[in-house]
Design brief:
about 375 residues, alpha/beta, six-stranded mixed beta sheet, 9 helices, globular
Length: about 375
């Protein structure tokens, strides 16, 4: 028997009238196509969705970290009856055309946004991850990996801190243990963190070092561009074992100072991280841009381009707001608007193309008249 509360379960999450011999809570620890890995009082089990509920009544499809109600079956797959309300949720625009939103993880307390301090270091990508992390409802933490291999360490650390104000920025090394003591504040019993980052940033190495054993394979990065191949092929929740001392991969991490019992959701590296409904996250990630936008321009309908009396242009010209920061904000807002109102976005695009075509016809007609 397992105490599911060690996996973050709170009895108050159980809906009224849901108790019964065949109805019990479980947590999703992995999603493998149409089959789910679950943990419940009976231990690790497999489950499948109840078709009439999930395909007939539009129930939210479970993702890793979700708490669900199941009908436990001893000799086969348990039946997943319901997805319980989430306290946090991370999603992205599905890279497959026409599919909308893709669930990534749920019910986590912190988002470890991971980027390495080698040639993978990319401020624009970090801004994108921060936006999605703030939108999730959990606490973002920027983890700069491979600190032992960093070139120009101080300038990269300063650049990350500058765009991630009000967020912990922690430089770590899975080889030397640098920065691991600062992770203890987030790796508490019953707490869940989710790892986000592109391939090759060291997610698997960090997970292995924290666990004190080899939970995930680690692939070498390519020498030509310092990027890695996908090590994690699916999202999965891991329970970190209690600290027992020793060296990495021999039964305990030497870098943490006490019992863990925290959970980590590892995700595959995402080369494409499309925006999907990030209105709140955009404001938090670009707090500096939002502050400038609260100032009144001379014209209430200012487009912040060439209009006189524009406070945004003034902030950029004075150096208060970096031009590249403004451009990143506009780009992500453009993507967010596409996701939030695809129909409106496509109508505007159609109207813009129509106007261009009309203008081209007029110019062509004028040319013919001159002849």
């Amino acid at each position: 028997m397992i105490n599911i509360e060690t996996y973050g379960w709170d009895p108050s999450m159980l809906p009224e009238g849901a108790e019964g011999a065949k109805c019990m809570p479980a947590r999703v620890t992995a999603v493998r196509r149409e089959r789910y890995d679950l943990v419940c009082v009976h231990g690790t089990v497999f489950g499948k969705l109840k078709t009439s509920v999930y395909y007939g009544f539009g129930e939210e499809f479970p993702t890793v970290g979700d708490f669900v109600l199941i009908q436990h079956e001893t000799g086969g797959d348990s039946l997943i009856l319901r997805t319980l309300p989430r306290k946090s949720f991370f999603s992205r625009r599905d890279p497959s055309p026409g599919r909308g939103e893709q669930a990534v993880a749920a019910n986590f307390d912190a988002v470890f946004i991971m980027t390495s301090l080698n040639r993978d270091f990319n401020i624009s990508r970090l801004e994108r991850y921060l936006t999605l992390a703030w939108q999730s409802g959990a606490e973002p933490v920027v983890i700069l990996t491979k600190a032992d291999l960093a070139d120009d360490f101080d300038s990269k650390l300063e650049a990350a801190q500058k765009i991630a104000a009000h967020v912990d920025v922690i430089a770590v090394s899975a080889v030397t243990g640098q920065g691991f003591e600062r992770l203890d504040a987030y790796l508490k019993p019953g707490k869940t963190v989710v790892f986000l980052g592109s391939s090759g940033v060291g997610k698997s190495s960090l997970l292995n070092a924290l666990a004190g054993e080899k939970l995930m394979d680690v692939n070498a990065i390519r020498e030509d561009d310092a990027r890695g191949r996908h090590t994690t092929t699916h999202r999965q929740l891991f329970m970190l074992p209690p600290f027992t001392g020793g060296s990495p991969f021999t039964g305990g991490s030497p870098f943490t100072g006490g019992p863990s019992g925290a959970m980590v959701i590892d995700t595959p590296g995402m080369r494409e991280l499309g925006m999907y409904d990030v209105t709140a996250g955009l404001g938090s990630a670009f707090y500096d841009v939002e502050e400038v936008l609260t100032r009144n321009c001379r014209f209430s309908d200012c487009k912040h381009k060439t209009e006189p009396g524009c406070t945004v242009r003034a902030a950029i010209e004075s150096g208060e707001l970096p031009a590249e920061r403004w451009e990143s904000y506009l780009k992500l807002k453009h993507e967010a608007r596409f996701s939030d109102d695809r129909a409106g976005f496509m109508h505007d695009k159609w109207q813009r193309n129509k106007n261009i075509a009309k203008f081209s016809r007029q110019m062509k007609k004028k040319g013919e008249i001159r002849k």
